[in-house]
Amino acid sequence: MVSDQLSAGVRNAPTTARTGSPDPVRRRAGPRRRGSLAVPYLLLVLPVVLVSLALGYPMVRQFVMSFQEFGLAQQFGRPPTWIGLENYRQVLTDPYFWIVTARSIAFCLVSAGVTMVIGVAFALLLQKLSTFARIALQIALVLAWAMPPLAALTVYTWLVEPRYGLVNWVLTSLGLVGFENFSWLAGSPWTFFAIASVTVIWTSVPLVTLTTYAALTQVDEEVLEAGQLDGAGGFARLRHIVLPIIRPVILLIAMLEIIWDLKVFTQIKVLQASAGNNRSTNLLGTYVYETGIGGGNYGIASALATVMLLLVLALTWRYMRTLMKQGDI
């Protein structure tokens, strides 16, 4: 009886099922699916083209000029002369280049390190604040981050002005000797870079704070409760649970901070206008600018910029490898 019913069901099945011919709906879904798979790649075409035009050509041009003698004469029509690695030899054998490089790396590591510590601390603080206080602090951070660098630098220049600046007035009012008419920018390279580092940290802390806080909001509360039940205190939960979870975000932000702080230009260049001694306060960014645009030696400047690019890649390669191993890139 059962076999008869199965036989009848097979006889009454659609022809497409018995013959194995494709379903019309499936036949139409094939091209549609292939089209949907191609959409992401088509959307990437325009950004890739724009980035290639905006950054690709200047980088190729810079690389080519680094092997040429390209100075003021070439700007007035004389063909550039190919000199091979001569520009790189001059750069790498110049003691001042190594002084500027060491100075830039030290400035970068100090500024990026302090920025990360303050930013992560502020992010942890945001979790403990009330809703109103948290929103107010977030608005303040966004406003600080959105402030144009030149406007912020103008404020800092006024604050450390030798005769009428607020910083010297406060220190003098506290009875500290030696700060009357003290020039923070022109007095010493150490004080110059202290002020420059503060301006860089001021600009970077809001982004680190808001990004880290966004990562902290994704930490599962059940995991923290389980750690608390196991006897882990607040610092232990932070060290062994929270920080490992948000580690990819912190590594990514740290990598970006190193890149930004190593090639910092605007803050140093504006503050140098008040310092008056560029040679003792140059970093790689301003050194490249002075060599190229200021001195007219674009061949040497291109070689400097290429070496600077390689230095950035070397400093960030470890972080990139770590992120790629974790599958975040």
From TrEMBL:
Query: CDD domains from the entry?
Result: TM_PBP2
Give me the ranges of the annotated region Disordered: 1-31
Bilayer-crossing residues are 37-57, 96-125, 137-159, 190-216, 241-260, 298-317
Q: Where in the cell is it found?
A: Cell membrane
Q: Mind telling me which SUPFAM superfamilies this protein's record contains?
A: MetI-like
Query: What biological processes does GO assign it?
Result: transmembrane transport
Keyword terms:
Cell membrane, Membrane, Transmembrane, Transmembrane helix, Transport
Q: Where is the ABC transmembrane type-1 domain?
A: 101-319
Q: Membrane topology type, per the record? A: Multi-pass membrane protein
Q: Report the sequence similarity comment from the record.
A: Belongs to the binding-protein-dependent transport system permease family.
What this protein is called in its record is: Binding-protein-dependent transport systems inner membrane component
**Natural source organism:** Kineococcus radiotolerans (strain ATCC BAA-149 / DSM 14245 / SRS30216)
Q: What is the lineage of its organism?
A: Bacteria, Bacillati, Actinomycetota, Actinomycetes, Kineosporiales
